[in-house]
Amino acid sequence: MNRKTNRNRKKHLWLFALLLAAASLCTACGNSTEAATMHLTRTEGGVNIFDEAEKNIAPAENLGLYSGYRIDTLEAGYAWISLDQVKLTKMDQNTQVEIIKEEKSLEIHVLEGSLFFHVTEPLADDETMEIRTSTMITGIRGTCGWAESRPGYSLTAVLEGSVECTAPDGAQIRLEAGMMAILEEGSSDFRVQPFARNEIPEYLWDEVPEILDLFTDDTEEEIPPQPKDDDSGNVPAFQLELPPLPQDGIDRTVLTAENDEELYALLTSGDLSNMEIHLTGDTYHAGYLMTDELGNTYTAESFMLNGWENLSLIGDGSTRLLVSHEKALVLSVYGCDNLLLYGLVLGHDVPPEVECSEAVLSLSYCSGVRVIGCDLFGCGLVGIQASNTTLTVQNSAIRDCSEHGVLWSGEGEAVFENCSFLRNGGPLFYIYNGGAGFTLTDCIIQDNMGSAKRAYFDESGAGAWNETGTVETGNDWQ
Fold it and tell me: Which long-range contacts (CB under 8 A, 24 or more apart) does 266-273 make?
């Protein structure tokens, strides 16, 4: 081999080595770029950092953090993490988190302790940020709050904005500002309740003082008023806020019933479709004569509505429909479409020592039923017993029923808005198979005595369950 050939070969080897070094440098730059988006911006007190190989790394200001890193804060130790400059988290003392990052997906796993989060700009459509605790995953897009992992349960609380919380079985709720979701291990029932200023962890007070000023030091105003006797000594009515009478544009014939006899006459007069019946008296008792298809007469121990459409029963918020027999339904409805029950008090008028064995309101094969501003009270066995029905209940109370607040079978959908469920037996919602969906919005669930908020006879037939703004206090399952 001549000297020229040897020199050329050495030159080629040198160029190959240079290109290899450049490629390695670019790879390192790629890592650096990813790490630069996550920084440990500040620490206070004792903080330990471990990489994905469990190697200890000394804390430093603006330290780059990679996927797989774990950060531990010790007693009186705190750590601040900056993410893309518009996402900030702060770790409380005695907290352990792990960072998992894959392209534009970021997950912070709170292994134990408490983590404050503050996303000042909404994430892009192709970005995700999740905080995982021991029992739930919280999706963050542009909000402020904190998450905790504790022995046996975890929680997420929102100071500003809203988040989506997901249980291990896929159950989801949307959590708004001022509300806290708690989920115990092995459960999929979120307990959602408001929190007061004095419940906000002290370690985040200096981070968002302007937001903290929006909260007060107590939540007493969230607790609903209790039922009370009126001056007449009649069955107590729950004190409800009666919204305006809804209008659906349907032309109805307006009728009035001042007493039992006038109401009986209407209920037995034939087809009540497209009627609006105003109950102008105080109290109505069931016990009227009915005639069946064979011409036989019998005493109706319950109020009954069968097969009518566009019927409205209108009370003033304290108008009572009562039955005096513990084994009778109060109001039985079958095959009615677009029924409105408004401003009514429904219940059994029996001595306290007598146990009821029937429901207050029974709905079967109905659609578009609306219950607005009504009080359904025990000793009814169940507040609402329904099957294959679509139902909306607003500004109403279901209280003091011995078995369940709601007993449901078959298909359908039930929506409860601004409702109170008080002192009922349980489970509060007991649902047979059929796939009915339930939505609770801004409801109060207080002092109920069952073992669970909801239970299914057949879990495989469970339909969707959605909650927003639920307040739960003093229930036996809590």
Answer: 267/303, 267/304, 267/305, 271/308, 272/305, 272/308, 272/311, 273/308, 273/309, 273/310, 273/311
Residue 258 DSSP SS3: coil
- pTM of this prediction exceeds 0.85: no
Q: Please say whether the dihedral angle defined by the alpha carbons of residues 129, 132, 137 and 140, taken in this order, is positive or negative.
A: negative
Report the percent of the chain where pLDDT is more than 70.
83
Contact call for residues 421 and 448 (beta carbons, < 8 A):
yes
**Around Cβ 464, how many Cβ atoms within 10 Å?**
12
Q: What pLDDT digit, counting tens, does each position of 275-284 carry? A: 999 999 999 9
- How does 20-37 read in b/e, with b if 16+ C-beta sit within 10 Å? eeeeeeeeeeeeeebbeb
Distance CA 249, CA 289 (A): 34
| Cα separation, 140 vs 107, whole angstroms | 10
pLDDT above 90 for 47: yes
In 280-428, at which residue ranges do the beta strands (DSSP E only) sit?
283-285, 288-291, 297-300, 303-306, 312-323, 331-334, 340-348, 361-364, 369-372, 375-377, 382-394, 397-399, 404-417, 420-422
In contact, 408 and 431? CB cutoff 8 Å: yes
Which of these, 397, 447, 407, 400, lies nearest to 427 by C-alpha position?
407
How far is it, in rounded angstroms, from Cα 231 to Cα 373?
Answer: 21
Q: Which carries the bigger pLDDT value, residue 353 or residue 422?
A: 422
Give the chain's mean pLDDT.
82
CA pair distance 384, 419, nearest whole angstrom: 13
Find, among 370, 381, 461, the residue nearest to 414 by Cα: 370
Q: Tell which phi-psi region holds residue 113, choosing left (phi > 0), alpha (psi between -120 and 50) or beta.
A: left
Closest listed residue to residue 179, CA positions, set 192, 170, 188? 192
Structure tokens at 107: 């997950």
**Rounded to whole angstroms, how far apart are CA atoms 322 and 332?**
12
Residues 64 and 70: their CA atoms lie apart, in Å, by 12
User: Residue range 443-456: average pLDDT?
Assistant: 90
Q: Which of 49-58, 412-421, 426-435 has the lowest mean pLDDT?
A: 426-435
First to last CA, the chain: 88
234 confidence band (pLDDT: 50, 70, 90): very low
Name the β-bridge partners of 163: 175
What are the tens digits of pLDDT across the range 376-387?
998 878 999 999
